[in-house]
UniProtKB/TrEMBL annotation:
Pfam family, one: Cas6b_C
Cas6b C-terminal domain location: 119-223
Domain of life: Bacteria
Name this protein carries in UniProt: Cas6b C-terminal domain-containing protein
Species annotation: Arcticibacterium luteifluviistationis
Length: 224
């Protein structure tokens, strides 16, 4: 399979807070800027809806706070093209030459590997339904088994997003450790979600920009 492009844009002069509703406002603003710039025309490879469309199976464009500044990341050809188009319009609208900006262009080649690679996903949000299901389980290993299935489903969703076909190979996910955060994490409109810090192993190479779980569009669930 050909390499998947990944682009990260850090606007070091743009200070943002970590409030989900604020990030959502910025993503909606990016959507509107791209849409207005297109003036109703359909341009191949540019999709404004990628900026936090609720119908997306995987959020290909994400916004996080990097040391309290804005960091946008796009994974995939269309996503990168759309983010770069927005960035061009953003520079035009400011009327200033870019100053403290970091642009990171990467390539990622998805592939199964012959061993179990260890990863960690921080602040992974889970659905209310799954949280209730886990709370009703008294057996530790049953909870871990359920979360392994949840991680498996998230990884398969990402594989579909990048168009990867596993063929006859099977994805294996094994949880090594789980930490529960003391407090739930805020999402939109005052709602909160249960957050977990999970160390796991799997036999698939993952990009360093991958996010898993819910509300990845606003920076939750970073894998390292």
């Amino acid at each position: 399979m050909k390499a998947i492009p990944i682009c990260t844009i850090r606007l070091l002069d743009v200070t943002i807070n970590d409030e989900p509703d604020y990030k959502k406002m910025l993503l909606i603003g990016a959507f509107e800027k791209v849409q207005n710039s297109l003036k109703g025309e359909k341009v191949e490879g540019i999709e404004p809806e990628l900026f936090h469309n609720q119908e997306n199976k995987y959020s290909g464009i994400q916004l996080a706070a990097y040391k309290k500044t804005a960091e946008y990341t796009a994974i995939g050809e269309t996503e990168v093209a759309t983010l770069n188009f927005w960035y061009e319009q953003y520079l035009k609208s400011t009327g200033e030459a870019p100053q403290n900006i970091v642009l990171i262009n990467e390539t990622y080649v998805p592939a199964f590997i012959a061993y179990q690679q260890t990863y960690r996903v921080k602040t992974m949000l889970i659905s209310d339904e799954l949280a209730k299901e886990l709370n009703n389980m008294t057996d530790k290993f049953a909870r871990w088994d359920r979360l392994e299935k949840y991680l498996y489903g998230n990884l398969k969703r990402f594989m579909r997003h990048i168009g990867y076909e596993p063929g006859e190979q099977f994805l294996k996910v094994t949880i090594q450790d789980i930490m529960h955060y003391d407090t739930s994490k805020p999402v939109y409109h005052g709602q909160k979600k249960t957050a977990l810090d999970i160390r796991f192993q799997c036999n698939f190479r993952l990009p360093q920009t991958l996010r898993l779980g819910q509300s990845t569009a606003i920076g939750y669930g970073r894998v390292s």
